[in-house]
Prior knowledge:
The chain has helices spanning 42-52, 77-84, 114-125, 143-160, 164-176, 181-185, 190-201; strands spanning 17-25, 30-37, 65-76, 95-97. The protein has 202 residues and is an alpha+beta fold. The chain has 2 domains: 17-132, no CATH class; 143-201, no CATH class.
Amino acid sequence: MSDRKTEKLPPVNENTKYAVLMETSGEECESWYYFIRHDGNEEALNNLNEQLNQVSEWYIIDGYSTFDLVLDPLVSHQTAKEMINLDLNHTSFHRKFDGVMKKVNLKFKSTDKDSRKIKRAFKVLGYGRIENFVEDEDVTLTSDDLEEDEDTSSSTDSNESASTTEEEDGAKKMSKKGIPEALLNCNLPRNVRAKQHRRKKK
């Protein structure tokens, strides 16, 4: 994450509270919760909330996501921890961030219509890119997940040396399995890659 703040927050404890950013993908028919530590990140969270509230009506556009941020009520550390351990979605886990958050700029313009703002927000935050703005993700992976993640990384390295035609063929095959092209082309978080690899093996 570039331009990170140098200060650190106190260690997480049972009294730590979290705001919840929800991303909803119409294409995936899923919602993903990002639990963001509230204490110490109030300014950055309020700034993001003000921008998201500039969209008069959030609605699903093919290939894009909608976003909701809940600052009241906040959720407990225990709730956030339990939620990220649920394996309910096909594409991504819920995620939890315990560190410093920097300000997000969704680059909205006063002349933008809601549809344009939704697309701008997706470009900055879509498919878990909130990770670019918050430190210290709490990643809970089993040994099997880690092993599968290593296999996926090795496979990715091999694919990079393949021809363009082979890569396109591979993308088409994966797309037939329900993975959107936008998701294939982005840099996925480690836990998402691990989960997709596990799903593919089933």
